[in-house]
TrEMBL record:
<dbReference type="GO" id="GO:0008289">
    <property type="term" value="F:lipid binding"/>
</dbReference>
<dbReference type="GO" id="GO:0006869">
    <property type="term" value="P:lipid transport"/>
</dbReference>
<protein>
    <recommendedName>
        <fullName>Bifunctional inhibitor/plant lipid transfer protein/seed storage helical domain-containing protein</fullName>
    </recommendedName>
</protein>
<dbReference type="InterPro" id="IPR016140">
    <property type="entry name" value="Bifunc_inhib/LTP/seed_store"/>
</dbReference>
<dbReference type="InterPro" id="IPR033872">
    <property type="entry name" value="nsLTP2"/>
</dbReference>
<feature type="domain" description="Bifunctional inhibitor/plant lipid transfer protein/seed storage helical">
    <location>
        <begin position="41"/>
        <end position="106"/>
    </location>
</feature>
<dbReference type="InterPro" id="IPR036312">
    <property type="entry name" value="Bifun_inhib/LTP/seed_sf"/>
</dbReference>
<dbReference type="Pfam" id="PF14368">
    <property type="entry name" value="LTP_2"/>
</dbReference>
<keyword id="KW-0813">Transport</keyword>
<comment type="similarity">
    <text>Belongs to the plant LTP family. B11E subfamily.</text>
</comment>
<keyword id="KW-0446">Lipid-binding</keyword>
Amino acid sequence: MIESPMLVDLFTHVIMKVSIFVLFITALLLCRAPTALSVTCNPVELSSCADAILTAAPPTAACCAKLKEQRPCFCQYKQNPNLKGYINSDNSKKVAKSCGVPIPTC
């Protein structure tokens, strides 16, 4: 079988395009936000912040760590009628600010 130079060039071009596309998709998958490490929303995880929120005491390091961990859940907590008052309280906002955790607008 005789291969024409044009056919070889076309085949090489197609292989290059497919390779670039595969690399692009791989990079896109590797760079997207980490969803495998998603947080489990559980308000009990914020129990280390109870003293700071209820009494205006300074938040502990454990409280700040949990606030940062649970931040993706704040909107869910704000929608819960049992938690809404705590999440929207002035002390809660002060604790979040002290910990450097912005409260999202939902």
